[in-house]
C-alpha cells in the first residue's frame, strides 16, 4: 500500500503529469496517421527523455505507447484504413457500421472498450508484479509454439462462408511471411536478389495495402462513407458506450486475451486482435452478421489491443525480454535511465514499476475521453463527398507507406498488396485469414525449430502444449462439422470465371512455392515454406474444382441472397473503381518521386479533388493547402525523417 | 565626373575581389548542414542506442553545428545498409552509418552475399573495444572451462549470421567442444531467460555490462576478442587455447573485429577533408564530459574509442592474411 501511495505521489507532480498528457496527445496523433507506427514514435521520443527523471520519462513513453491503439480506430472506422496494424480487425465491422451511418456508435463502442481494456491491462500488470518472474519462467519455448498454433486455428473461424478459400488465404499469408532472410539457416527466401526484401514484407505496408486501398474503391462508388444512410447523431456515441457496457463479459474476456497474450514474445498486437475478433465471432449475438457491422466485432479487438500494453510490460520488467516490438525500444529507455529489468524492478524500483501501471491506466482514460470529445466532428466526416476524401486518404496511405523505407519499392509493394486485397475483397477470399497467417508464420516456424532443437519431439508431451494443441484441433474439428452441416446454404457467391482464374493462379503459385523451396533452400529453411505452399496448392485446387462444378451446374441466386461474413463486394463497377484508386496511387507515387512529398501532396490533392468531380476550384486548393500543411506537420516536424531528394532537385543541381 | 569617386573605384574593385575570394574560400571549407546516421539494425538495440547517443553530441564538434538525425535501416545484420552505403548513399558527409564491426570481413565469410570491396569502407571511429564473454547459468552446472569444453549441453544463439552464433561456433569447432548450438533466438535477453528456464545452458558473445548485474545467477567462462575485460582481467581467452597455429590464427581473424565495436562509417568517395572533420569531431566528442556522462547511462558500456584511421589500417592489415587462414576461418564457422 505504501508503494502505491508513493507511486501516486511521485506521479502527481505537475511535470510528470504534463509529460504523460503530452505523451497521450503524441500517441493519439501517431495512431491516427497510417504509416507512423508507435514503434517509430517511441524511438524518436527516447532521446527527449535523456534529461528527465525515470518517472517523467516512462510517463511520456508509456503515455504515447498506450493510446496509439485508441486513435488508430478513427481511420479504420471511417475509411477502412487501419491507423496501425492493431486496428485491422476493427476495419471489418467498424467500417461496415460507418457505411450504415453508425460511425458515432462505432466510435463510442471502440473508445469505451479501449479504455476498459487499457485499464484492465494495467491491472493485470499490477496483479502480476509479485508473480511475474515465476510466471515468465514457467512458460517454455514449446508452449509459445502451442500458443501460436492455437492462434492459427482461429483461421477456421475467420474462414467465412467459403472455408476452403479462408484456409488458402491463411496459407498465402504465411507464405508471404517467409519472404526474406530466414532466422534459422540465414539464407534468402524468395527475395529475388532484392535487398529491400531481406527483412521480409513490411507488416505496416501489407496491412495498409490489404485493408486500406480496397475500401477506397467502394467509397468512390458510394459517393460518401455512409452513402444514403441516415445522418449520424451524437446519440449514437452513447449507444456505442452502452453496447460496451452491456457486453462487459466479452470486454473482460478480450482484455484478458490481450493482456495475457501480450506477455508472450512473438504474439504481437496484429495477432491478438484477430484472436479476440475470432473469439467474439463464435457468438455473434443479436444484430448483423460478423463483418457486416456487428458492434461486438469492434468491441472485441479494441479491448484486446489496448490491454496488450500492460501485458507486454510483464516480461520486459521481469527479465528484459521485450513482450512486443515497442517494448524492445522501451528497453532502451530502461538502459538510459540506469534501470535493470529483473528483481530490482520488483524491489528497490517497485514504486517506479507501479507508476508505469498508473501511467498506462491514466493514459488510456485521457486518450479515450479525448477521442470521445472529438466523436461528433469525426462522425460528420462520414457525410463528406468521396471526391474530397479519396485523394486525402490516398495521400496519407501513399506518403505513409513511403515512410517505411523511403524507397520506390514501398510504393510498388503497397499497390501490389492493394491489388491483391481488392481481388480478395471482391471474390470472397478473407483478408482476415491472410493477415493471421502473415503475422503468425514466422513465430510458428521459429518456435517450432527452437523447440525441436532443444528437446527433439519430447516437447509434444508437455501438459500445456497438449492442452493448447488439443483446443486448437477441437476448434478446427467443430468448425469443420459446422461447414459440413451448412453445405449448400452458402448464400450469394462471387462470379465464377474470375474466381476460377484466381484459384488457378494460387494453385500454380503454391506449386511453384513447393518446387522452389525444395530445390533452392536447405532442409531447415525449406520445410515450413514447402508445407505451407503445399497446403496452399491443395486448398486452391479444391476451390478451383468446387467453383468449376458450380459453373457447370449453375444455381440461380435466389431473392434475398446477400453476401455473408466479411465478404463485401463493391456495389457497381468494382473494376473501374479499383483501377481508379490504383491509378491515383501511381500518380501520387510518381509526383512524390518527381517533386517531393509536399509539392506532390498539394498538386495531387487539388488535382484529385478536381478530377473526381468537385466544382469549386477554391475549395480544392484550400483542402490541398490544408493537407500539405498537415503532411508537413506530421512527417517533417513530428516525425523528422530525411526525405530522398526528388528527381527535379537532381535535375536543377545538374544544371 | 567626380574625381575622388573615380579614384576610389580601383580600391572598391580590390575590396570586392578580396571579399569574393574570402567567400569562395569559405565555401570550400567543410560545412555540415544536416547529417543522417543510418543504423543497420532495428530500434532499441546497442547500435541504435549508441547512434542516438552520438547524434545528440557529435554535431557540437563539427563545423556548422549540424542537426543529426537517426534512421533505422535494418536487414541482414546490417549487410543491407553496408551495401547501400557502398552503392547508393551520397558521399558528401550528409549520410554516415552504424553497421556491424564484422562487415569488413563479411566478403571473406560469405562472398556470395557480401560481394563488395571492404577496403572502400571509410571509418569514422568505433565506440568500444571490450571483448565479449561466454556465460552459463549456475543451475547448468557448467562452471569451469574444462566442463564447458568437454560436456554435452546446449548453447543458445540468434541466426547463423549473428555474433552469438559465430562466437559459439568458433569456440566449439576451434576447441572441439561437445556442446550443441541452438539457433533462432531473438536476442541475448531471450537466451538468458531460456538459460534460467533450463532450456539451454548459456550463450557466447555477451558484453560484460550485459551480465554484470547477474553474476549471482551466471558463470563467466572466458572471453572472445582482443584485449581484456576491465572488470575481470584474468578471464581466459578461448582462442589462446587452440593448439593448431593455423586454426588459432583463423580464430583470431574471426574475433578481430570485436576490437572496434559499434563503429561508424562513411561512403567511399567522401572528400578527404570531410572525412577528417568527422574523425576529428568523433575523437573530440569521446573526451567530452557531457558525452561521457550520457554514455555512462547506457548500461555501463566502456567508452574506449578506436579512431577511424586506426580501424582502416588494422582492417587492411588483417585482410592481407594468408588465404589459408580465410579458409580455416570459414571451416570454423560451419
UniProtKB/TrEMBL annotation, chain A:
It comes from the Bacteria. Residues 17-434 form the DUF112 domain. The chain crosses the membrane at residues 20-46, 113-132, 144-160, 167-187, 250-277, 317-340, 352-375, 381-402, 409-427, 433-452, 464-484, 496-519, 526-549, 579-612, 619-639. Pfam families: TctA, TctB. Residues 505-638 form the DUF1468 domain. Keywords: Membrane, Transmembrane, Transmembrane helix. This is Tripartite tricarboxylate transporter permease. The lineage of its organism: Bacteria, Pseudomonadati, Pseudomonadota, Alphaproteobacteria, Hyphomicrobiales.
From TrEMBL, chain B:
Residues 1-29 form the signal peptide. Keywords: Signal. InterPro entries: BUG, Bug_dom1. The keyword Signal applies. PANTHER family: BLR1237 PROTEIN, TRICARBOXYLATE-BINDING PROTEIN. Belongs to the UPF0065 (bug) family. This is Tripartite tricarboxylate transporter substrate binding protein. It comes from Mesorhizobium neociceri.
Amino acid at each position: 500500500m505504501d508503494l502505491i501511495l508513493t507511486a501516486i505521489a511521485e506521479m502527481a507532480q505537475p511535470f510528470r503529469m504534463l509529460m504523460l498528457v503530452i505523451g497521450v496527445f503524441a500517441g493519439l496523433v501517431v495512431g491516427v496517421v497510417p504509416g507512423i507506427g508507435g514503434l517509430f514514435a517511441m524511438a524518436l521520443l527516447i532521446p527527449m527523455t535523456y534529461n528527465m527523471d525515470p518517472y517523467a520519462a516512462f510517463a511520456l513513453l508509456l503515455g504515447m505507447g498506450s493510446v496509439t491503439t485508441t486513435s488508430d480506430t478513427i481511420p479504420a472506422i471511417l475509411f477502412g484504413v487501419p491507423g496501425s496494424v492493431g486496428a485491422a480487425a476493427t476495419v471489418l465491422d467498424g467500417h461496415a457500421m460507418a457505411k450504415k451511418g453508425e460511425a458515432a456508435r462505432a466510435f463510442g463502442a471502440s473508445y469505451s472498450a479501449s479504455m476498459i481494456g487499457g485499464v484492465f491491462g494495467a491491472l493485470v500488470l499490477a496483479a502480476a508484479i509479485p508473480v511475474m518472474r515465476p510466471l515468465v519462467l514457467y512458460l517454455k519455448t514449446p508452449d509459445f509454439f502451442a500458443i501460436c498454433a492455437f492462434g492459427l486455428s482461429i483461421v477456421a473461424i475467420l474462414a467465412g462462408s467459403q472455408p476452403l478459400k479462408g484456409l488458402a488465404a491463411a496459407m498465402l499469408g504465411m507464405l508471404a511471411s517467409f519472404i526474406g532472410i530466414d532466422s534459422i539457416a540465414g539464407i534468402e527466401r524468395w527475395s529475388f536478389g532484392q535487398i529491400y526484401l531481406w527483412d521480409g514484407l513490411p507488416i505496416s505496408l501489407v496491412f495498409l495495402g490489404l485493408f486500406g486501398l480496397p475500401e477506397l474503391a467502394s467509397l468512390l462508388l458510394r459517393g460518401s462513407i455512409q452513402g444514403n444512410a441516415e445522418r449520424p447523431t451524437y446519440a449514437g456515441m452513447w449507444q456505442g458506450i452502452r453496447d460496451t457496457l452491456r457486453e462487459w463479459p466479452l470486454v473482460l474476456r478480450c482484455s484478458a486475451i490481450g493482456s495475457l497474450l501480450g506477455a508472450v514474445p512473438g504474439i504481437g498486437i496484429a495477432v491478438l486482435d484477430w484472436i479476440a475478433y475470432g473469439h467474439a465471432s463464435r457468438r455473434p449475438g443479436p444484430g448483423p452478421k460478423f463483418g457486416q457491422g456487428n458492434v461486438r466485432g469492434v468491441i472485441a479487438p479494441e479491448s484486446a489491443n489496448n490491454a496488450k500494453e500492460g501485458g507486454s510490460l510483464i516480461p520486459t520488467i521481469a527479465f528484459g525480454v521485450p513482450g512486443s516490438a515497442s517494448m524492445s525500444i522501451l528497453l532502451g529507455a530502461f538502459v538510459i535511465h540506469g534501470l535493470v529489468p529483473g528483481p530490482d524492478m520488483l524491489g528497490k524500483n517497485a514504486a517506479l514499476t507501479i507508476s508505469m501501471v498508473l501511467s498506462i491506466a491514466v493514459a488510456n482514460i485521457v486518450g479515450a475521453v479525448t477521442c470521445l470529445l472529438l466523436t461528433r466532428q469525426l462522425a460528420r466526416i462520414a457525410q463528406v463527398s468521396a471526391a474530397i476524401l479519396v485523394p486525402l486518404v490516398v495521400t496519407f496511405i501513399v506518403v505513409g507507406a513511403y515512410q517505411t523505407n523511403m524507397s520506390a519499392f514501398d510504393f510498388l509493394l503497397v499497390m501490389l498488396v492493394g491489388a491483391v486485397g481488392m481481388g480478395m475483397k471482391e471474390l470472397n477470399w478473407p483478408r482476415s485469414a491472410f493477415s493471421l497467417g502473415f503475422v503468425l508464420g514466422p513465430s510458428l516456424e521459429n518456435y517450432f525449430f527452437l523447440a525441436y532443437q532443444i528437446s527433439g519431439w519430447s516437447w509434444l508431451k508437455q501438459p500445456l502444449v497438449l492442452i493448447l494443441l488439443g483446443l486448437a484441433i477441437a476448434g478446427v474439428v467443430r468448425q469443420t462439422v459446422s461447414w459440413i452441416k451448412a453445405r449448400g446454404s452458402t448464400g450469394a457467391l462471387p462470379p465464377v470465371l474470375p474466381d476460377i482464374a484466381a484459384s488457378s493462379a494460387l494453385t500454380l503459385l503454391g506449386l511453384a512455392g513447393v518446387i522452389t523451396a525444395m530445390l533452392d533452400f536447405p532442409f531447415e529453411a525449406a520445410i515450413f515454406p514447402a508445407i505451407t505452399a503445399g497446403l496452399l496448392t491443395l486448398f486452391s485446387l479444391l476451390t478451383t474444382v468446387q467453383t468449376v462444378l458450380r459453373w457447370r451446374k449453375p444455381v440461380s441466386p435466389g431473392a434475398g441472397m446477400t453476401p455473408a461474413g466479411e465478404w463485401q463486394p463493391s456495389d457497381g463497377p468494382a473494376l473501374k473503381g479499383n483501377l481508379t484508386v490504383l491509378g491515383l496511387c501511381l500518380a501520387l507515387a510518381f509526383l512524390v518521386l518527381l517533386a517531393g512529398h509536399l509539392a506532390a501532396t498539394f498538386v495531387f490533392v487539388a488535382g484529385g479533388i478536381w478530377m473526381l468531380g468537385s466544382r469549386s476550384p477554391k475549395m480544392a486548393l484550400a483542402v490541398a493547402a490544408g493537407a500539405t500543411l498537415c503532411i508537413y506537420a506530421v512527417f517533417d516536424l513530428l516525425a523528422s525523417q530525411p526525405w530522398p531528394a526528388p528527381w527535379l532537385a537532381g535535375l536543377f543541381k545538374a544544371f | 565626373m567626380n574625381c575622388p569617386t573615380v579614384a576610389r573605384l580601383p580600391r572598391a574593385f580590390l575590396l570586392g575581389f578580396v571579399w569574393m575570394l574570402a567567400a569562395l574560400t569559405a565555401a570550400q571549407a567543410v560545412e555540415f548542414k544536416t547529417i543522417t546516421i543510418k543504423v543497420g539494425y532495428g530500434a532499441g538495440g546497442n547500435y541504435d542506442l549508441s547512434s542516438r547517443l552520438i547524434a545528440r553530441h557529435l554535431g557540437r564538434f563539427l563545423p556548422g553545428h549540424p542537426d543529426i538525425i537517426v534512421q533505422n535501416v535494418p536487414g541482414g545484420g546490417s549487410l543491407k545498409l553496408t551495401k547501400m552505403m557502398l552503392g547508393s548513399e551520397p558521399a558528401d558527409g550528409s549520410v554516415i552509418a552504424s553497421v556491424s564491426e564484422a562487415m569488413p570481413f563479411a566478403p571473406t565469410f560469405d562472398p556470395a552475399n557480401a560481394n563488395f570491396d571492404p577496403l572502400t569502407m571509410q571509418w569514422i571511429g568505433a565506440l568500444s573495444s571490450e571483448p565479449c564473454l561466454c556465460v552459463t547459468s549456475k543451475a547448468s552446472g557448467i562452471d569451469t572451462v574444462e566442463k564447458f569444453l568437454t560436456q554435452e549441453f546446449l548453447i543458445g544463439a540468434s541466426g547463423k549470421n549473428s555474433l552469438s552464433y559465430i562466437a559459439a561456433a568458433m569456440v566449439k569447432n576451434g576447441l572441439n567442444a561437445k556442446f550443441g548450438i541452438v539457433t533462432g533466438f531473438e536476442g541475448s535477453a531471450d537466451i538468458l531467460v531460456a538459460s534460467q528456464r533450463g532450456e539451454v545452458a548459456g550463450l557466447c558473445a555477451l558484453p560484460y555490462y550485459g551480465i554484470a548485474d547477474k553474476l549471482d545467477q551466471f558463470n563467466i567462462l572466458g572471453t572472445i576478442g582482443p584485449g581484456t575485460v576491465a572488470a575481470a582481467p584474468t578471464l581466459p581467452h578461448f582462442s589462446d587455447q587452440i593448439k593448431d597455429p593455423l586454426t588459432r590464427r583463423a580464430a583470431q581473424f574471426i574475433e578481430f573485429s570485436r576490437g572496434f565495436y559499434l563503429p561508424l562509417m562513411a561512403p567511399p568517395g567522401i572528400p578527404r577533408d570531410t572525412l577528417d572533420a568527422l574523425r576529428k569531431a568523433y575523437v573530440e566528442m569521446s573526451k567530452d564530459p557531457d558525452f561521457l556522462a550520457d554514455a555512462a547511462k547506457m548500461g555501463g558500456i566502456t567508452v574506449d574509442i578506436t579512431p577511424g584511421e586506426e580501424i582502416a589500417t588494422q582492417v587492411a592489415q588483417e585482410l592481407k592474411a594468408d588465404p589459408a587462414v580465410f579458409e580455416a576461418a570459414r571451416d570454423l564457422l560451419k
